[in-house]
Design a protein that fits this description.
The protein has six helices and two strands; from the N terminus they run H-H-H-H-E-H-E-H. It is mainly alpha-helical. This is PIN domain-containing protein.
Length: 97
């Protein structure tokens, strides 16, 4: 969702596009999870160990706990984690489905 905001600020998408995108996510494509203190503690440890932000670490650790893959366009995050099995670039999503 933050990426949508950035794209809007750069003039790449409209407010209507953001609203429609969020409606699609609300329609079942997005699973909301509670951020627990346990998750924050694990993310903090992960953040320090891998030199990534807590914000990014929360998403990565949650993907690991759910035994799934985190798809992101954040190349810096992908590079920081090397060939980790739990993170992939969004461009790889189509080939995995």
């Amino acid at each position: 969702m933050n990426a949508l905001r950035k794209y809007y600020l750069r003039g790449l998408v409209s407010e209507d596009f953001i609203r429609r995108s969020l409606e699609l996510l609300r329609g079942g494509l997005l699973d909301i999870r509670e951020i627990t203190w346990n998750l924050i503690m694990k993310a903090s440890d992960f953040s320090i160990k891998h030199n990534v932000t807590i914000y990014d670490a929360v998403h990565v650790v949650l993907a690991m706990e759910l035994n799934t893959v985190l798809y992101t366009a954040d190349e810096a995050l992908i590079n920081a984690l090397g060939n980790a099995p739990y993170i992939r670039h969004v461009r790889d999503y189509a080939s995995s489905t």
